Structures are given as C-alpha cells and as structure tokens.
Description:
Blueprint (H helix, E strand, L loop, with lengths): L1 H7 L2 H12 L5 H5 L6 H13 L3 E6 L2 E6 L2 H10 L6 H17 L1 E10 L3 H8 L2 H7 L5 E5 L2 E6 L2 E12 L3 E8 L7 E10 L2 E12 L5 H18 L23
Antiparallel strand pairs: 1-2, 3-9, 4-5, 5-6, 6-7, 7-8, 8-9
Helix pairs in contact: 1-4, 8-9
Amino acid sequence: MDNIFKALADPARRDILDALRAKDGQTLSQIGTRFEMTRFGVMKHLGVLEAAGLITTVKRGRFKYHYLNALPLQEALDRWITPFAKPAAREVLDLKAKLEAAEATQIVTMSIFIAAPAGKIWDALTDPAALAASHDRADDVRRDGAALTFSAANTPFLRLEEVAHEVGKTRHMRFVPLSPTAAASEVTFTVVEEGAHCVLSLEHRGLSTALAHVPDSWRRSLAGLKTLLETGVAQKFPSPPPAAPDLSEKETPK
C-alpha cells in the first residue's frame, strides 16, 4: 500500500498514468514523447509504477508495452477513502469504484508444453468434447457455427467466438462472458512446434480485472487439455473449495 501512495505522490507519474489511460499499451519511446524528461527519467518513473502494481508490462520482440492496472488503486480507495466518507459521498465513491472496476483491464499471458502434434492441439482448442473434458468449470460445451458456448449445471457462462485462424500460426478468439456487466475481450492462441512437442501460448488482452478468476481458470483448463492430449484421459483441475473457518476454541492464555 505504501508503494501505491509513493507512486502517486509524484505529478510526473500521475501524468504517465493519465497517458496510459488515454492510450493503453505504449512503449517507453511513445510515453517519453509526451514529457520533457530524459529517457532514463521516464524509465525510473515507470519502474516505480510497476513496483506499485499500477502498470503491467508485456515484451514483444524488442519492445516492452506498458498497460494501466487500476486494481491496486481501487483497493487503496476502498481501504483508505471510502470508509471515511460521509454516506452521500460514499455512495458516489461506490459507484465510481464499480465503474472503474468494470473498465479496468489487464493482459494475461501464459505458455504450456504439450507432447502432441500441432494439428491435434489446434483441433482440440475448438472441439466441444475436448473442451468440456478439460475446462475447469464447464461440464458442457456446445458449438453454434464459429462460436462455442460453455455451461455449468445447465447455465451458460461463456462464449468463445472464432475471429480468425492463421493455420500453423495463431488463432484469434472473442471472449464473451455471459454477464450483463462483463465486457468482451480478445484471446490469441499460438502453437509453435519444437521437435516432438509444441508450445501452446495464450495471450488474453483487455480482460476486465473484475473477472479475477479467469487467469487461474486458463491455467487449470490448459493443464487439463495437456493431460487429455498426452494421455487420452480426461482430467479436470477445478479450483479447490474455500477452506472452512477454524471454529475450534483456542486456549485462553493464563
């Protein structure tokens, strides 16, 4: 929490956050053109913001791209401002918090090694049976044209819509949470052959930080897909249930 307030104390760093809010995903050079300071100075400010968790970075090729992450700021707001506000002001802050949480986005990246041919991996990524057998939450997946609908207990909660597929390179999907408050985002799958195995990579851009469970769900679902492709045995890795509270009586110190 101290890192957040330290990062926000400098007007230059606040200006950088404003620049990323106006246009997310900028490189160091793009950000530097907006300020009258050295490249080293911009790098130093970006380092402080990243250490505070207010920005995240993704490296592609020779460039590093910077993205705004409003979640830590929202947590600071909830902890240090909202509790001290008067009732009327608190209602306004609550509305502001909900709007910011809904608009805040993040980028998620992950990779997994799979001992299977690339073609088999590509097919499994859009095969309803394979997805239903490996997804951590879904017990049923149905295809409707180029779209896949995921359901749990007969309740649809997600649609994946294929946007484009460059054979042997990438597959672009539109991620649509079936919730009136969740916005759609973009998922890109990449498969790279490395001899007898492949590397399956995922990049999820524009994911609402309100959907905090999605990155863990991707990790568990990709692990299930890897097991299915390598062994032919369906295996799910669901999230563990929350730990039960310890209701045992503790001995009172004498």
